[in-house]
């Protein structure tokens, strides 16, 4: 046993593990069952954040715009954007909420919704004297965490798009 392994400096060292621990994982178990509990916990927490963000954007943000609720309609009328602007933003938010739940699109969706929140922040500053400017900034934090954590899907999405373009 190496001195580092004996002292516990290298807990992942193969010399510090039993034969049972170094054996290949059983293929009958799910892949999640073979991963460390901490990694599973982080993935579950990230998925919960994604679901909460998707619910917020779909129900609390997009729905009032898409049904023309007076709170949304009055806000867009005050800005001079009218119903067309209200429905356009509502559709973008709903599309982002749905895409947050699609594994291949989740990073792109989180990035796009973050960009939308930059726009919302600017609008809050320009039209409403920053009254609710913190809200889009607060939403950007978990969106950017999701975008970063799920960025691996971007490569696969890029491959699929390039293959589709080549096929014509």
Structure description:
By secondary structure, the chain is mostly helical. It is about 75% helix and about 0% strand. It is built from nine helices and no strands. Helix 5 crosses helix 6. The termini are far apart. About 20% of the residues are buried. The N terminus is likely disordered.
Brief sketch in words of this structure:
This protein has 168 residues and is mainly α. The protein contains 9 helices and no strands.
Taking all Cα atoms into account, the compactness measure Rg is 23 Å
Give a count of the beta strands, DSSP E runs of length 2 or more.
0
Mean pLDDT metric: 85
Strand and helix order:
HHHHHHHHH
Low-confidence stretches: 1-30
The gross shape turns out to be globular
Strand count, sense and barrel status of the largest sheet are: none
Q: Beta fraction of the residues?
A: under 5%
Which bin fits the share of residues in helices? over 70%
Total number of helices:
9
In whole angstroms, how far apart are the ends?
59 Å
Structural class: mainly alpha
């Amino acid at each position: 046993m190496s001195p580092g392994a004996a002292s516990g400096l290298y807990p992942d060292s193969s010399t510090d593990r039993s034969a049972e621990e170094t054996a290949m994982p059983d293929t009958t178990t799910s892949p999640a069952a073979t991963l460390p509990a901490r990694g599973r916990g982080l993935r579950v927490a990230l998925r919960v954040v994604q679901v909460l963000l998707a619910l917020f954007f779909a129900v609390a943000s997009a729905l009032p715009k898409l049904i023309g609720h007076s709170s949304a309609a009055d806000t867009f009328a005050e800005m001079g954007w009218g119903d067309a602007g209200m429905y356009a933003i509502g559709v973008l938010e709903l599309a982002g909420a749905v895409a947050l739940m699609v594994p291949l699109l989740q990073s792109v969706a989180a990035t796009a919704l973050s960009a939308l929140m930059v726009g919302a922040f600017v609008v809050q500053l320009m039209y409403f004297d920053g009254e609710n400017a913190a809200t889009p900034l607060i939403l950007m934090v978990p969106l950017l965490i999701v975008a970063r954590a799920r960025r691996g899907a971007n490569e696969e999405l890029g491959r699929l798009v390039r293959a589709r373009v080549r096929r014509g």
